[in-house]
Structures are given as C-alpha cells and as structure tokens.
Amino acid sequence: MKFINYLEKISNVSFYGLTSFLIFFIFFCAVFIYVLRASKKEMNECSRIPLD
Fold first, then answer.
1. Where along the chain do its domains lie?
2. Where are the transmembrane segments (predicted)?
C-alpha cells in the first residue's frame, strides 16, 4: 500500500499541512525580525560563543 493511501484515510489531512506551514512561517518571521533588530554588539557577542 502506498503512503498516499494512508493520507487519504485521515480526515482533514490538509489541516496538518497548513498548520505546519504556519508554524514554520511564524518562526521564520520571528527570527528575521530578531536579526534585523539586534544590535551589532549583541551579534558580535553571539558569534564569539563557540570560541570562548
């Protein structure tokens, strides 16, 4: 039996795809806004973490 047959049996399967896309999109936007608003000093401190 193919994988698509299992998905067809789940009711409202499109809801899961939409939900996962929204979670990804919100997370991506939040990280993008954080990077734009962060100061240069804060970014330099974060970049030094692996070396300390």
1. 12-51
2. 15-36
pTM of the model: 0.61
Two tokens at 3? Answer: 């994988």
Amino acid of residue 12: N
Asked if 26 contacts 32 with a C-beta cutoff of 8 angstroms, the reply is no
Dig out the tokens for 18 from the structure. 């939409």
Helix, strand, coil % over all residues of the chain, rounded to 5: 85, 0, 15
**Quick one: CA torsion of 41, 43, 46, 52, rounded to 10 degrees?**
-50
Please write the tens of the pLDDT for every residue from 10-28.
777 778 888 999 999 999 9
